[in-house]
Amino acid sequence: MESVKVKKEDSNLIYSILTKLGPAYSVFVSTFHSTREAFISQGKDYKPPSFDSFCDSLIREQEKLLHLGLLNLGNSSKKALAAQQQPNSKNPKKSYPKKNGPKPNKGPKQTQPQNEKSFQQNDKTNKNKWKKTDRHCNFCNRDGHLESKCFKKMEALEAAMKKHNIHLEHSSTSTSSSGMALSACGCQSSRSGYALNVSSSSHSHEWLIDSGASYHMAKNKAMFSSLNDCNTKNIYVGDDRSLNVVGTGTVHLDNGQFNDVLCVPTLSCNLLSVYQITHSGEGKIVEFSPHDVVIKDLRDPKQILATGIADDSTRLYKFHNFGSSNLPSVFVAHNDEVSKLWHERFGHLNYRSLQHLCKENMVTGLPMVSCRDGVCSGCVLGKHHRDSFEKRASWHASAPLQLVHSDLCGPLPVVSFSGCKYFLTFIDDFSRRTWVYFLKLKSEVFNTFLAFKAFVEKQSGHQILKLRSDNGGEYVKNTFINFCTENGIQMQHTVPYTPQQNGVAERKNRTLKEMANCMLQSKGLGLSFWA
Hints:
Layout: H1 10-20, H2 26-41, H3 51-68, H4 113-129, E1 136-137, E2 142-143, H5 151-163, E3 166-170, E4 180-184, E5 196-197, E6 207-210, E7 216-218, E8 224-228, E9 234-236, E10 242-244, E11 247-253, E12 256-263, E13 270-273, H6 274-278, E14 284-288, E15 292-297, E16 304-311, E17 316-322, H7 337-345, H8 351-359, H9 377-383, E18 404-409, E19 422-428, E20 434-439, H10 445-460, E21 466-469, H11 478-486, E22 490-493, H12 503-523
């Protein structure tokens, strides 16, 4: 290229290749130009792709057309980058008009009048032919031909192909045309009909985010930190080919890892399944945009778990890196979805027992399950229980009336002969002395407490400091609370539906009821005589 004094620009080579593509590549060409126009219309700087990435894109486009049957290798007019040359012609030497008239013929022959007349006519014709026209080449900056017919451009293009290990060779699929197809050095001759048959594939560390993949898949065994047998033995790709699966395992990357990844050695690139991402753990969100892809937590969308980038040259989304999550694996909360399935089939049996069943061959068809970190939401809600309460209180009163326990029992199943349905108890925590009052209505509790307070404080010379009761409506009335607040009495209410926290009064109620029942049974009295 330096010898012909042509500026090295990938964009010129790319646009030259686009002009040589046949009708089968119309979608590829229109997409390329529409992308450029979209950037320009938005006021953004358009940077064309590198020549290497453009070649890779053209290879994939041709392979897709071949699989779809839209490209016929026998028709040389549909080959990418066909050189516009004659079958057996070389680069012709350029002839220029003779400015000083015809050169005299050398040799013994003399010019005859007829030949002289003929020569004058030909000279006139040549002058008209090489007269300056509107045909101008923007590549070599010369007149007389167009850029598409420029031989210097073809020589520069050939030099660029050789620089990228691509050489021009005559197509073996057609003898009637002079088309020359691009193929990679060292490729099989049987595949020379491909437009750009370059043995290029994705790097082993790149991961493509694919919504058409059912599982995470990797092609290199060396990437796996652990590899185990799996039930899935084969996978099927887009053209119904079956690829062998050698196992499943974990692939560690920077700041994270991929679990449940299938190892498929014959796969051309590493794939991340969008389905497996969204259905892992408690669920994930995958958001695609024109420039990137973001993976978020379903419960906390503000937490970004991982990100990917959009490769415009290959028109694919590639995994970039993990987010700032502290989870060991942001894509898979369950270490093994099969283990989770068998855990649920056995009624949420713990994983250690499942492993024991498998090792002892106690269940036919049970695969080896793996213990998983974290917890199962079903187990947390279904197996939790209340902790037992302490049998002894951590604190006791050191003086009379320092703490008073109280509870209202009733309504009892049988009304007493005096019309009472309830009985109210007050127990001194220091002496365990008990006062019992029989009530007809729950609304009488507050007035009864006033009478009790006046009586015990006058008789003992001490004042009530704390009153412990349940959360019943008779104790949480505004009048009751306001009175205790004004008189400096601290009210201690238990948690709703937790009678264990008021155990002294509850146990006293049981003692009183058993005492009354024994007295009635021993004397043969009716139940209405309990009060």
